[in-house]
């Protein structure tokens, strides 16, 4: 795992803490990666035992359970 990936994962956690809900596309744009990479980051974050939740549907996205 490289430094850019670590930075992006930390940034994603911060973005999700600052916002109630963000879509994969919003996160991808902020992190300058594709949607698939955002999903990989989400899985890595879950592996750290951080409660990142996926809300499915039209108004879906990711959020961190606080």
Task: Kindly describe this structure.
This protein has 66 residues and is α+β, with helices and mostly antiparallel strands. It has three helices and two strands. Strands 1-2 form a two-stranded antiparallel sheet. β1 (52-55) and β2 (61-64) form a beta hairpin. α1 packs across α3 and α2 (24-31) crosses α3 (35-47). The protein is globular. This is HTH domain protein. Residues 11-62 form the Helix-turn-helix type domain. Pfam families: HTH_11 (PF08279).
Low-pLDDT sequence parts:
none
CATH architecture verdict: Orthogonal Bundle
Q: Please give the largest β-sheet.
A: 2 strands, antiparallel
Superfamily (CATH H level) name: Winged helix-like DNA-binding domain superfamily/Winged helix DNA-binding domain
From the spread of the alpha carbons, the general shape counts as globular
The class by helix and strand makeup works out as alpha+beta
- The CATH class assignment is Mainly Alpha
By DSSP (H or I, 4+ residues per run), the number of helices equals 3
Instruction: Report the portion of residues in β strands.
Output: 5-15%
Total DSSP E strands: 2
Mean pLDDT, rounded to whole units? 96
Rg from alpha-carbon coordinates: 11 Å
């Amino acid at each position: 795992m490289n430094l850019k990936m670590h930075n992006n994962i930390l940034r994603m956690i911060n973005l999700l803490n600052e916002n109630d809900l963000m879509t994969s596309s919003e996160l991808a744009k902020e992190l300058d990666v594709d949607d698939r990479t955002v999903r990989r980051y989400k899985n890595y974050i879950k592996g750290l035992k951080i409660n990142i939740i996926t809300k499915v549907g039209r108004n879906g996205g990711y959020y961190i359970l606080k």
